[in-house]
Design brief:
This protein is an alpha/beta fold. The protein has helices at residues 16-21, 45-62, 96-109, 126-135, 152-158, 168-173, and strands at residues 35-39, 66-70, 72-79, 87-94, 115-119, 140-145, 161-163, 179-181, 186-188. 31% of the residues lie in helices and 24% in strands. The strands form 4 sheets. The chain has a 3-stranded parallel beta sheet with strand order 5-6-7, covered by helices on one side.
């Protein structure tokens, strides 16, 4: 999650399946089967270690109900358009959007889902939403914006979204224990993930 308000750091260490489960209502005939997490390991070692702990803990907590799809970062050369005009390299995430789009498409083709739930405010997913709505009109889309993020382009496609900053109680309910272990590996909440 990329947010500005430091209080949200308290909720980085959450059980993602448990969090998402709170938005699924069995009386509506819904059942959460899998949470798919699309990301890329950061180039920065400290960030990569924090992400690895978070993903490892979620895997221990949820087993096959939590699936990770990893892209990668590549260095991209950019030029400063301000007065310095210097060239420098920045890391750019690769494959994450494509992995997400292809997985949604495959789940629809194989008829594994009735409802697709996206937690994103990334307007790069607008073409995915458009295509699925066109080719699979019976599939439903639900979009949840991460805290303090939004996209008018996504809203225009789905008509209604959920703002997760209005559901802080569900974040609190999904916080994992400080230490998560499967008996062999141990994952500990990073100290930086507190306000």
């Amino acid at each position: 999650m990329c947010v500005v308000d430091p209080k949200w750091k308290n909720y980085y260490w959450i059980d993602l399946f448990k969090f998402c489960q709170q938005f699924v209502y069995e009386h509506e005939g819904s059942k959460l089967t899998t949470v798919k997490y699309f990301t890329a390991p950061p180039k920065n070692e400290q960030k990569r270690n924090r992400q690895s702990a978070f993903l490892g803990a979620n895997k221990v907590m949820n087993g096959d109900k939590f699936v990770i799809y990893a892209g990668h970062y590549a260095w991209k050369d950019v030029e400063c358009f301000a007065t310095c005009k210097q060239k420098f390299s920045i890391p750019e995430e690769k494959c994450t959007d494509v992995n997400l789009a292809l997985n949604i498409l495959l789940d629809c083709v194989e008829d594994k889902v009735d409802t697709i739930v996206l937690i994103t405010a990334d307007s790069d997913q607008v073409p995915t939403i458009k295509m699925i709505k066109s080719k699979f009109p019976k599939k439903k889309f639900k979009v949840y914006y991460p805290p303090l993020r939004k996209s008018a382009d996504i809203l225009a496609q789905v008509g209604q979204v959920v703002f997760l900053e209005n559901h802080e109680d569900k974040f609190k309910a999904a916080i994992m224990p400080f230490e998560v272990s499967d008996g062999n590996k141990k994952y500990t909440r990073p100290v930086e993930w507190k306000k």
